[in-house]
Amino acid sequence: MHIDELDTPAYTVDLDVMERNIASMAEHCRNIDISLRCHTKSHKIPEIAHRQVRAGAIGICCQKLGEAEVMAAAGIENILIPYNIVGARKVERLTRVAKRTEITVAVDDVITARGISDQAVKDGCRVNVVIELDTGTKRCGVQSPEAAADLAERIMDLSGLTFKGIMIFPSHPEAKGFLRETVERITQKGIPIEIISGGGTGGEENSKALGCTETRSGSYIWEGMSRIGNSGMLNAERCACRMIVTVVSAPTPDRIIIDGGMKTFASYPPTPYGHIIEHPDAEIYGMSVEHGHVDVSRCTHRFKVGERLSVIPLHQEMALNLHDELNGVRGDQVEVIWPVAGRGKVK
């Protein structure tokens, strides 16, 4: 169909831009000689994950087990979950996935590791494990190289687990000492390290400099290589996503209302909440649940009810998680409609 036939609000992706973003990151990682693991939380669409793997990624990363289940069902063969999987119900689901594909999970506590071990033994499978280090986010992760080495030793004694290595987030230069000492302490115990996983789009070169074997990057698929060099803010050349909206009210010459609010875009600060491609001087300055409030006082164009606008959301990943479908557009034609299969999979 023609793009103008889409009912609004409609989330679209410019396939030419997306494909360029995928190819550019794959080439960048090849050039600096580090393996790319694509973080699919940015799109949650198996068909896009397959494209990333075909472009050269060694596998994918899923933030939640539910997303990993979706990707495994679609035939993705190498998945890392950089998240602690805790609780009997979740661990049962994890081992079912482990029987279908190669799965690696992060742990930072022996209680977590033991729970996975017990279920893996019961179900007759193995689960790969990496230890997460807290390199400054004050989120998850062991707090010292000594703690990491002790946990690695205890994991080696647990059945059903294969110790693979360590992971960090983000890949900041300040982590170098912590990471180096952790590697030394673990290998001194005779425990091999196969994976050192770094993370954060734009941190690929840092990951390489720190000695990581792979880098986890995700938002580049929508944002392009903006964090490598200076490509400016939201613009159509590097940002693949567009929200097609309709002007539903023009109450004053200085203000219009569009049919997309918080439940369309996600009210992610700061303002403006997106970039209107056709009229860059217009600013989405506010949102209610289903209305977008747009300041058009700096525009010479006079807006009318029924006009359609193309908006690049400020946070494209969060906006996509609100929608059931993503419309792949090439030129003015809708080429493909993908279900956002992993949306809402927060368990």
Structural commentary:
The protein has about 350 residues and is an alpha/beta fold. It folds into 2 domains: about 5-10 and about 235-340, D-serine dehydratase-like domain (Lyase, Ornithine Decarboxylase, Chain A, domain 1); about 30-215, TIM Barrel. It is about 30% helix and about 30% strand. The strands form 2 sheets. Strands 1, 10, 11, 12, 13, 14, 15, 16 and 17 form a 9-stranded mixed beta sheet that branches. An 8-stranded parallel barrel has the order 2-3-4-5-6-7-8-9, surrounded by 7 helices. Helix 5 (about 110-125) links the parallel strand 5 and strand 6 (about 125-135). Helix 4 (about 90-100) packs across helix 5 (about 110-125). It is elongated and about 70 Å long. The model has no long low-confidence stretch (mean pLDDT about 95).
The helix tally amounts to 11
Number of domains: 2
How many β-strand runs?
Answer: 17
Query: How do the helices and strands follow one another from N- to C-terminus?
Result: EHEHEHEHEHEHEHEHEHEEHEEEEHEE
What is the general shape?
elongated
Characteristics:
single chain, 347 residues, alpha/beta, Lyase, Ornithine Decarboxylase, Chain A, domain 1, TIM Barrel, 9-stranded mixed β-sheet
